[in-house]
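# nightly structure sweep
# worker-07 picked up a monomer target from the shared queue
# config: single-sequence mode, recycle default, output format = structure tokens
# input follows
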Amino acid sequence: MSVAIILASKGHDVTTIQPHRTMQEAAAILAEKGIGAVIVTGGDGEVLGILSERDIVRAVGRHGVAVLQDSVSKFMTSKVVTARMDEAIDSVMEQMTAGRFRHLPVIHNGRLAGVVSIGDVVKHRLDAIESEHRAMREYIATA
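# output follows
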């Protein structure tokens, strides 16, 4: 099973922000959309970084609320780990666990194609386990 299956189910919409926008604008977007991270992109759609709720909280905790007026680029994670559409879900789960991050941008043909969260991965895994369980019960019932 690949990342493409998760995106086929959840969609390819990605919330992005430009690097010069403020941390407060980013926080407002996260709150409004009920999401945990936004992808920072350049004018051509290139992935420049990612900014999560955790990044914002850490910045405020270390430097005070004045950072909310600073640009997103100052606090974003610029070394973004990405996934491919054909990447195995188990591989993505391992990367996210090892790297201790919850959001993974998906790149297809050099372009941002979606974002997979740890919640998406867990939901997919639980659905697969339930499907296997149901198939096993049906097999036993007909044996």
